Amino acid sequence: xxxxxxxxxxxxxxxxxxxxxxxxxxxxxxxxxxxxxxxxxxxxxxxxxxxxxxxxxxxxxxxxxxxxxxxxxxxxxxxxxxxxxxxxxxxxxxxxxxxxxxxxxxxxxxxxxxxxxxxxxxxxxxxxxxxxxxxxxxxxxxxxxxxxxxxxxxxxxxxxxxxxxxxxxxxxxxxxxxxxxxxxxxxxxxxxxxxxxxxxxxxxxxxxxxxxxxxxxxxxxxxxxxxxxxxxxxxxxxxxxxxxxxxxxxxxxxxxxxxxxxxxxxxxxxxxxxxxxxxxxxxxxxxxxxxxxxxxxxxxxxxxxxxxxxxxxxxxxxxxxxxxxxxxxxxxxxxxxxxxxxxxxxxxxxxxxxxxxxxxxxxxxxxxxxxxx
Length: 373
Prior knowledge:
By secondary structure, the chain is mainly β. Helices cover 12% and strands 32% of the residues.
């Protein structure tokens, strides 16, 4: 969910700040895969391809709506729903659909949105994927209640790496996103046979240099795709162990314009991605992946033992700074491209606001006590 910008910031965005060119080129115009044709879906914040039915996409609404997961048929109409029982939709921002090690198919709803950074914990609820069309009600088979190590964060991205049996959350930072791994003690790639609730503290494993990450997905080979409002980035598989490493994308591409593009799913062919947007009657776009962003066709990466690192040890690098700038800018969800020009413009704007605030505080401190004219 994106908040409205203050008038001054909106004027800056209209003057070119939000339209800064992306660092990479697109691979051509997108096709409309389907158009969402259900009035209940007004904010498609998350998107996932069904592991069992190639033509079905799963999506959900944003905060304040019933806890429903919608199955979208090829026509864009809803062919079935899953109501997650006894779970409020505080701020559902992402979802994943996957098979576990036993071949069973599951849906994970990620209640991880936190625009004001106030929630002491967030939650991921896992339910079975229905085997046929229709409306069902499911109790969560697994409830993961997760805390951030450094205090609350806003996030809109849930990643499930089925090959390596791990789960990740990526925060929605103004300049960068922090990647957090769910500890194996809470999630080892399997779902218990009877309902269970587990609590855990997330582990920060690195930082991605992306502006406002809104969704992501993991390919069968373990590679990761993350999207922002305007860009797509491809990464090698994420590490498990804690660290402050910079996770650099191996390739990036500019995405087509959408009303408020948030959802991302890898198409079953592995050669394109599907993009959803908030708003009613919005098209789901099919965007062909450039060759250097496509997942490998090889077999999935073997799952490492808990003692193994998931990637070679990186060379030492400075600890990434937390995003600079005014907190009101962060909460407003300022939309900018991932270009250097866009980042520089936002940094300058944030710095100017900080300086102005400090000047006002200093001016108030220098005033003599008593009534002021």
